[in-house]
Write a structure and sequence with these properties.
With about 325 residues, the chain is an alpha+beta fold. It is built from 5 helices and 14 strands. The chain has helices spanning about 10-20, 110-125, 160-175, 245-250, 280-325; strands at about 35-40, 55-65, 70-80, 90-95, 135-140, 145-155, 175, 180-185, 185-190, 200, 210-215, 240, 255-260, 265-270. The strands form 4 sheets. Strands 1, 2, 3, 4, 5 and 6 form a 6-stranded mixed sheet that branches.
């Protein structure tokens, strides 16, 4: 089985000592994120090869955080509902880590990072009720809209959860569901999007996922944070936002938070071998809520810019059509 390159001990020691001294290799503060970019490319395939039925609508989103890149393809098709939930539509989240991301990832084999990302996105977007699945029903018990998000991690240098979550949310906001004629309890004509403007997906709120890394310095480790907390012998942990791959290799644990910008906490997961005081964890959660507000602002700006681009393109096409009609 392929494996990732074994990190050099000197590099690990240097990275950890730098973090304990409030320094990062890219000169960022410990609570700063890298450049976040959300684009909507049109040169990528707009059909999913893993979807059993042909898609009637699709949209593509690419999110870049530093050198991390995640491409999300969201497709919509009509299919029967699941027997367990006949009155709800279907939302499928399919993250994919390929050998392009890391040599340790194998095709058609679920890796631990892939499983963890799938579970977090499941809590953030489906179980939280962020998407109105009941509005996706066409004929109760017979036909529903099936939304599938194929999440392709092209490059992993930390921050995959943030990129994947933003990519799915942006896709859900831009996806248009074609108008469907239902007569006599059966699905009739499906109008094309250029014939009739489609309906938007019912996104009730934006659930934003963030991952925070932390270090608990030992008593013998140097650094300004390597000192006991007030009233005890425990070391003061430090938190790191948007940790890169070398920083994740030396961390003692992580905290995954799914929340809204208004402070609604939807999902939390603390992983790591070191214990952290509950009051410290609550403070970290509050900081994640503030970062969620910043991410939502970036997403809104990207969607607004894309709407303006599409409006200009649509106006140019209409103008060219009128000019051709006048010549004829």
């Amino acid at each position: 089985m392929p494996r990732d390159p074994i990190p050099i001990l000197n590099n690990l020691t240097f990275t950890r000592q730098a973090l304990l001294a409030n320094q990062r290799l890219d000169s960022r503060p410990l609570d700063a994120y890298r450049d976040l970019s959300i684009t909507f490319p049109t040169t990528f395939p707009t059909t999913s090869t893993s979807h059993p039925t042909p898609s009637l609508s699709s949209t593509t989103t690419q999110v870049t955080l530093g050198t991390t890149r995640v491409l999300t393809l969201l497709t919509a098709s009509i299919s029967p509902p699941t027997p367990q939930r006949p009155l709800e539509g279907i939302l499928t989240l399919a993250p994919s880590f390929t050998s392009l991301t890391s040599p340790s990832h194998e095709a058609h084999r679920l890796s631990p990072p892939e499983s963890s990302l799938s579970l977090t996105l499941e809590h953030a977007l489906r179980r939280s009720g962020a998407v109105d699945l009941e509005a996706l029903v066409l004929v109760p018990g017979q036909n529903v809209w099936h939304l599938r998000a194929d999440i392709h991690v092209l490059s992993d240098d930390g921050g995959v959860l943030e990129c994947a979550n933003l990519g799915v949310l942006a896709g859900l906001e831009r996806l248009k569901l074609p108008i469907v004629d239902v007569k006599g309890g059966r699905v009739g004509r499906v109008w094309k999007l250029d014939e009739k403007e489609g309906n938007s997906v019912g996104v009730l709120f934006w659930a934003l996922g963030l991952e925070l890394s932390y270090l608990v310095p030992a008593a013998s480790e140097p650094g300004p944070v390597g000192k006991p907390a007030e009233g005890g012998d425990e070391q003061v942990p430090i938190r790191i936002f948007d940790a890169t791959t070398p920083e994740q290799a030396v961390r003692d644990g992580s905290l995954t938070v799914v929340c809204t910008k208004t402070g609604d906490l939807l999902y939390t997961l603390k992983a790591g071998r070191e214990s952290v005081d509950a009051r410290v964890v609550l403070g970290w959660v509050g900081e994640c809520v503030r970062r969620a507000g910043w991410m939502e602002g970036v997403l809104r700006q990207a969607l607004k810019r894309q709407e303006e681009v599409e409006r200009v393109d649509r106006g140019e096409r209409e103008g060219m059509g009128r000019a051709v009609g006048e010549r004829l």
